[in-house]
Amino acid sequence: MDIIAYGVLADERSALEQAFGERHDLRCLDLVLNQDTAPTAAGYEAVISSVNDCLAADVLRALAQGGTRLVTQRSTGYHNIDLDQARRLGLTVARVAHYSPYAVAEFAWALALAVNRRVVRAVWRTREFDFRLTGLMGRDFHGRTVGILGTGRIGTAFAGIANGFGMRLLGWDITQNARCLALGMEYVDLDPLLEAADLVSLHLPLVPETHRLLGADALGRMRRDAILINTSRGGLIDAGALVETLRQGGLDGVGLDMYEEEAGVSFDRSLEVMADDTLAQLMTFRNVLVTSHQAYFTQDAVGEIVDTTVRNVEDYLAGRTGENTLTSPHDQA
């Protein structure tokens, strides 16, 4: 089968090519899939997408007209795909339901520790042979309170590490996770969690109910010395409200592995003027650390993502559906 993959990173290409081997004709592109680039998929029965691609209604129509019957996204999130349109077109859409939760949980802690202990600021200083400690004081996490929004696989892994630090665990989710309860987590409503937590970490899907969950009001409820970490989805936080909160002296630090409008800036912009004013403002705060949506990016997690993508293709060819299937021709609207 002819397959085309979009948004393929250099470190991913060899893994994808090796995984598909000689069984299928795979073409890897570093292009973002959108309305302008959709014609490049003409003649390819399967499209492998990334979370940064735009699979809106018009893009899906263009893919279907070009002969595409399968879209398999190599991510857990799928907010960028118009599933209703996919059903109307009779497309099969799949995703990667699970991959290593430790990759994201460990990176969330890397951000939390770096923000708390001012690691980036210290590195820049020492590169200039400035070894002063002024402005580098952090706090022990031991004995403090962490609020975890979303206690699925990743949130649970994050909670396990927090427990190792000796922290009090507060959780917020629609269901209580038995593994988190066994760690001593107390489930509370959102407002008291935000008011009590020294560290807040987001591990939620982006759905209408969680879009901009942390807006001006919620951010205003957080302790002024709290740290906020987001390795989940950028749209969980109202970026404009976050800028205003920081401008008013709220929050001790912020670590973001994604940004609300990251789809337009998640590539090399080093030689361009940053047109996104909100992101540019966020980057001016010395207590904000922004990374490149890399929390998942370990050999282990990428290997699992590639393996699952191959299984999704094989399931499609065999007419099977499973936990990764989001739409199929059988549920055509």
UniProtKB/TrEMBL annotation:
Any single Pfam family the record assigns to this protein: 2-Hacid_dh_C
CDD domains in alphabetical order: LDH_like_2
Sequence ranges assigned to domain D-isomer specific 2-hydroxyacid dehydrogenase NAD-binding in this UniProt record: 110-295
Top-level taxon in the UniProt lineage: Bacteria
PROSITE patterns documented for this protein: D_2_HYDROXYACID_DH_1, D_2_HYDROXYACID_DH_3
All copies of domain D-isomer specific 2-hydroxyacid dehydrogenase catalytic, residue ranges: 13-324
Annotated keywords: NAD, Oxidoreductase
InterPro entries found in the cross-reference section: D-isomer_2_OHA_DH_cat_dom, D-isomer_DH_CS, D-isomer_DH_CS1, D-isomer_DH_NAD-bd, D-LDH-like, NAD(P)-bd_dom_sf
Family membership noted in the UniProt record: Belongs to the D-isomer specific 2-hydroxyacid dehydrogenase family.
Name under which the protein is recorded: 2-hydroxyacid dehydrogenase
Origin species: Streptantibioticus ferralitis
